[in-house]
Amino acid sequence: MSSDNKEISITVSHGGTTHPLSLLPDTTLAYLQARLEELTSVPTNNQKLLYKGKNSVPEDATIVDAGLKDGTKVQLIGPTAEELGGLMAAESEHQRRERILRERAQKAPVKVRATGRASPSSDARYAFHRIEPLPHLPNPESARDLLTRLANDAAIRHVMRKHQFSVGLLTELAPHEQPHLLGLNVNAGQAIKLRLRTDRYDGFRTFKEVRRVLCHELTHNVWGDHDNNFKELNSLLNKEVAEFERAQAAGTHHLSDALGLESPHSALEAEAQEYVLGGGAYTLGGSGTSTPTDSPEERRRKVLEATMRRLQKEEEELEQRCGTAGH
User: Fold this and answer.
1) Which parts of the sequence belong to the Ubiquitin-like domain (predicted)?
2) Where are the domains of the chain?
3) Is the whole model's pTM more than 0.85, yes or no?
4) DSSP code of 128?
């Protein structure tokens, strides 16, 4: 065998199992993926191969063109056919159960105590009924912990009870499957999927960052498009989360109970004010930079304006990276 045809040995890991493979340099990437489907039951269109030196090439390219070398270690990420079928069946079952719950709610309105708080039975209904990380991604237990923390967050539970939100499944989005999305609400609460991981799979996004996306997707339980109705309710949810946490920090649960929806900017203003009053940095770039001659009120005004711009930019990014609107 000539040196040009010397076999290339690679190691592919998936789901805790290692698969050593020896391939000729002219082996196509499509052939490799078909072989991996035989070994792991992960369909080729769901396969994501992670390795150093990876090149973006068509399926008919060779493994050498794709950047695979002798001794390369490859991480295969993707759900098996069985896992895909199970997820679809589970979502179908949850859709049926959610329909039954909605029908029951229409026939028997929820009883409310004299205190104005919902009964324990209704509290249990307005929650996330199932939590599932994606088992084919690395470190699923850490993903489960983050999902559980989100589902049990006192502020999130408060707004879910107040607005009577019910979600069948809380799970995650795989960065490689829909890389442009941060969140997705399926069928107005049948399932909410959140981007938990960094793009490189080397860690998880911050809790508050993911929780802000969760508030955005909970708003899609009511409104499908990012219109003014959506913006008002989303703003209200973020405001109520901030209010709840401030009340907890102050040792009281006295919360304002808005009779109508706030303006789209009210939650942003509340968060910006909290940033300023809480001692946020006063040195800002651009035209908002404070000077030694500024009065305390002028410095706070500049910080408030800069923070408002930052928060509004975050909201715009959430809308652009949300997969729900238009579905």
Assistant:
1) 6-77
2) 3-77, 81-230
3) no
4) B
